[in-house]
Amino acid sequence: MKQHYLAVVTLTRNAIPILSLQDGMRQFEARAETKRLLAEAALSEFFTYKNVQLVKSRWLGGDLFLSALITVDGDEHPEWELAAHAPGAAKRWSEYARLELKNTAADYSWRAGIGCVSNPTGRYRSDLAYEAAKRALLQVNVEGGAEQGRTRYVFQEMLARNMLFPYYQPIVDLNDGSVFGYEALTRFPANESFQGPLELFLFAGEIGDAYRLDRVVRELAINGCASLGADQKLFINVMAQIMEDPDFSPGRTIGLLERHHISPHQVVFEINERTSIQDYPAIKKALEHYRSQGYQIAIDDMGAGYSSLQSVVELRPDYLKIDRSIIQNIHNDEVKAHILHTLQETGKKIGASLIAEGIELEEELAELKGMGVRYAQGYLLGKPAPFPLP
């Protein structure tokens, strides 16, 4: 099925030396042929689709605006792809403009912005062109706007083309060596935009897609562990900022769990505090609802970042996951051992079990066992991997 779009490209001059401005602009405005060539070059650089119709080409002062109608197949996304293509196209076009404008406005440098909107009729509409132009100018005026467009394209492609996949790291019961549960982790092919899952989730929050990403990775986590044992737990990461919103709901999750014969009592929402929690009452209200359905709660990365004792007091989690910064070389560090002991006492007071994260050394493991820590995870006990077959 064909899809129609209307796109606007704007190429805007950066500041130029005042001495060159008057003479440069006078000569530039007089060179109609040069302006035509620059517009054609911009069209070929920015619009790489086969079915593109240039509707308008207009210079306002020294700024170029191009409007074009684009028709693509249903599985193409020009609003993402044009944004991703923009930085390279702008660089090539700027070099062409520099050479073409020699001895006139050679001191110009340019920034590019692209706006693209759905155009159901396939015909030019001034209201859609205005909306696309606003988006293009916004991208120009935002620091790093074009580069963010490329990152947004990569993000959207990863979700649209199902490039995310779940890995699972075992959480071991140190009393008997059995697998108590698994933490679901998000993985994806290496790319230049995101070095790891943390960057992916933070970017999703920046562009307002955190809920969508959360839903996708949660579904992947559940679908990927259909053979989870009836006595095992599944730990699913949730950003605290998502749970602050009253629209966040696990209702969709229950349907997935039922499909795979997994009980809500087996699911632990692992709260990540990538930024400080702003609305504890909202989260506490949400947690009351989740707990009434059988879900449990863990606070991740205790001892690092924003994870705080206030969260423990306010949220009363079922599990405290102790960050590797506390666990690393704990066998040689009395202060770390004392901190862990304090967290153990806190856990006892609120009925929360401790899970030590990041175990890499036998000495660390021995120290934790000696201190009475029951649950642990880390490379020493098991690396993240696809869910094990039954």
TrEMBL record:
<protein>
    <recommendedName>
        <fullName>EAL domain-containing protein</fullName>
    </recommendedName>
</protein>
<dbReference type="InterPro" id="IPR035919">
    <property type="entry name" value="EAL_sf"/>
</dbReference>
<feature type="domain" description="EAL">
    <location>
        <begin position="148"/>
        <end position="390"/>
    </location>
</feature>
<dbReference type="InterPro" id="IPR001633">
    <property type="entry name" value="EAL_dom"/>
</dbReference>
<dbReference type="GO" id="GO:0071111">
    <property type="term" value="F:cyclic-guanylate-specific phosphodiesterase activity"/>
</dbReference>
<dbReference type="InterPro" id="IPR050706">
    <property type="entry name" value="Cyclic-di-GMP_PDE-like"/>
</dbReference>
<dbReference type="Pfam" id="PF00563">
    <property type="entry name" value="EAL"/>
</dbReference>
